[in-house]
Amino acid sequence: MAGAEELEGICKKITALDPGIRSAVVLNSRGHLEAGGMRKGLEPLEDQRHVEMMYVELALRVRMRHEFDSELGGVRFSMSYRDRVILLSFPLAEDGVLLASTEKDVDFGRIAFEILEIIGPLHGSDGAPRP
Question: What is the pLDDT of residues 37-57, one digit of tens each?
């Protein structure tokens, strides 16, 4: 995975895409925070313990999705449309993951593909984002 400074820069670019993006974080393969965070001035919707549990669970899910790559192709991103937020996860090389959370009123289709462009070579699979 890229260095911490590069990952921080990527997270900042992502949060700058739209004021409705609440957070952008990069997690390692074990679900530990490597870079990024919440947009300044926003309050998290969950407590720190739940955030850490969600990160670990997400990292595990991303690794498990590789089971179907040979039949279905690599995952470019996954989305959870929840009652309070939208969560977008993007597999990265070395089983890392980029997680972005947004307000519900953002154009999640546009945002997802713009994020794919930003993460480019950090993306898992073959590194080539595809619509």
Answer: 999 888 778 888 888 998 999
